[in-house]
From TrEMBL:
Residue ranges of domain GST C-terminal in the record: 91-207
Species this protein is from: Oceanomicrobium pacificus
One GO MF term attached to the UniProt entry: transferase activity
InterPro entries: Glutathione-S-Trfase_C-like, Glutathione-S-Trfase_C_sf, Glutathione_S-Trfase, Glutathione_S-Trfase_N, Gtt2-like_N, Thioredoxin-like_sf
Protein name: Glutathione S-transferase
């Protein structure tokens, strides 16, 4: 069976989830037309949601007229169409490890950073019924997530499977996104500093 081909990526230029997909695509050499949605202006709740079926970005349009949303779902589909370079696991064991660490980075670092921003920055009030106490609670969770990342990287220099994968993409975007909450990497996290330098040097990581 021939799978539908992607023909459009709808994204928001400064949002972290679209950046995860852009990096994933760049690693695989995938180039698609792109359409921008201004999420700070609420465009995702209007024509975008009516067309796609959800307000989430990114969204991938396929040439059979259907849409895919959710970052990892989009990446998984692109991996099926473009297996190399492999970013999600070459066998069941490796795929499970990569998925495990990608989810850990998503829930224990990426999500807390986002919550500090969304509930702690007054400019984000257009998108969120803000609870400042939740922002402060998540600052502690960001620190814990950074400790977990340092522990993972101290093993062999990558987040999972001993090589660059989607788990590194998730963690890297989370760390880069910390600039929005004015959070710095702890100086003592040597493995994370080395890793961030290596990932930043990859052409795919250019914002």
């Amino acid at each position: 069976m021939t799978l539908p081909r992607p023909d459009l990526l709808v994204e928001a230029p400064y949002a972290p989830n679209p950046r995860r997909v852009r990096i994933f695509m760049a690693e695989k050499g995938i180039d698609l037309p792109r359409e921008q949605v201004d999420i700070m202006a609420g465009e995702q709740f209007l024509a975008h949601a009516e067309r796609v079926g959800t307000f989430h970005v990114p969204a991938l349009h396929l040439d059979d007229g259907s849409w895919l949303t959710e970052t990892v779902a989009i990446c998984r589909y692109l991996e099926a169409l473009h297996p190399e370079p492999n970013l999600m696991g070459r066998d069941a064991r490796e795929a499970a490890e990569i998925e495990m660490w990608s989810r850990r980075m998503e829930f224990q670092l990426f999500y807390p950073v986002a919550q500090v921003l969304r509930h702690g920055n007054p400019k984000m009030a257009v998108m969120e019924d803000q609870v400042p106490q939740w922002a402060e609670a998540n600052r502690t969770r960001v620190q814990s997530g950074l400790e977990l990342l340092e522990h993972a990287l101290s093993r062999d220099g990558y987040v999972a499977a001993g090589r660059y994968t989607i788990a590194d993409i998730t963690a890297f975007v989370a760390v880069e996104f910390m600039r929005t909450i004015r959070q710095e990497l702890p100086e003592a996290h040597d493995a994370t500093h080395v890793w961030r330098g290596l990932i930043r040097a990859r052409p795919s990581s250019v914002p």
